Amino acid sequence: MTAAPEQRPATASRTVTRHSGDDDLRALFGQSIAVFASLAGPTHVLEAANPAFFATIGEERSRTGVPVAELMPELADQGFIDLLDQVYRTGEPYTGRDARVVLGTGPQAREVFFDFTYEPRRDPDGSVVGIRVIGVEITQVKQSQRLLTEHRALVEQIARQAPLSEVLDGMARCIEDLSPDGVLVSVLLADPDGSHLRHGAAPSLPHFYNQAIDGIATGEGVGSCGTAAHRREPVIVTDIATDPFWAEFRHLAEPAGLAACWSMPILARDGSLLGTFAMYHRTPRAPQDTDLALARLFTDTAALAIERHHIEQAKTAAEASARSALEELAKVVRAERELRAEAEQRAATAAELNARMRTAATLQAATSHPETCQLGGTAGCSGPAEIKIADSWGDSAWGCTTHVEEAILNVRSVFIASEELGGLAAYLNR
């Protein structure tokens, strides 16, 4: 009896397909946000690329089978084609960090940053047949770093009490530089009563436009800024040409080349109005989340700068008021001292004149009408004795016109003697 052959369990057949390394990389980077491209030959013909690559260079250039220098001619003057030539020639990979790349030309040009690697592709014999490009865009990271640097510089300006106009102008220029979409920034400052807005900073807006809106009222429908100030909330106008808020200002916006305006109120910590922060664009458009985040950040910074300015103004005014009060007090003290000195001088003069009268009264006992003035004191007086004066104690004396006047002004209770005594007529006829 012959044994039956051993039965092996049935298994499903499986076909293993060999994939090249490039195929695996294409599969790996197919849906990745990292940029991947495969280049062939010494002219670096684009064989394949993932969607992220074409999204980066522009969907209108989404094609393969052409050299990179032809597809992206702007790279030639930036040194990237030379680097590809170097890697292809030497077979040595190249890694770049924080590489700045300008994509596109003219008005459509934009700045991006990449970390990237050029890796040589080899055939089975080890010869270089192409290059793999793998990169990660770090533009947002670079912009965030620049934003933090610029923001820190603004805060330092505020801390060292730089002039408000300098801080606001620097802030406006910073945002215009950071924004990739050609934004124009304006800051308006509120009057103390919050009813009007005054020019604060707008370095890129035309002078005629800044001059025309300087002093606009706050209120519903008064452009983007006037309305934002009135409502105390952001106002987004995506198309100035059709928005009713801009009906009275379109004749200014059109020659200034302004098509959209987003405005945010700048509020103090107590909720009072400090001003408005506006971002203008030359084409109609709605803000992205990043635009609004940038606006909120710098609106808060502007509030800090303006409040600090108001505090410094109040401090300066208080110091000026204190100085003025001290100066007035000093004047009063000086006047009081002068009056006291004058009173003391008058008292001394009165005492001296009293003494003269008593001396004259004593002398008069010997002669009833002297020929010369008796009121000259120790210095004497050669003037004729024309007028007789007396005091309430009965002392009397003759004197010249000058010394009699002096006695009347400085000595209390001195009067002209009666006509019978020979004084009044002479005094009246002097």
Automatic annotation (TrEMBL):
SMART domains listed in its UniProt record: GAF (SM00065)
InterPro entries: GAF (IPR003018), GAF-like_dom_sf (IPR029016), PAS-assoc_C (IPR000700), PAS-like_dom_sf (IPR035965), PAS_4 (IPR013656)
Superkingdom in the source lineage: Bacteria
PAC domain boundaries: 97-150
Transmembrane spans: none
Pfam families listed in its UniProt record: GAF_2, PAS_4
Official protein name in the record: PAC domain-containing protein
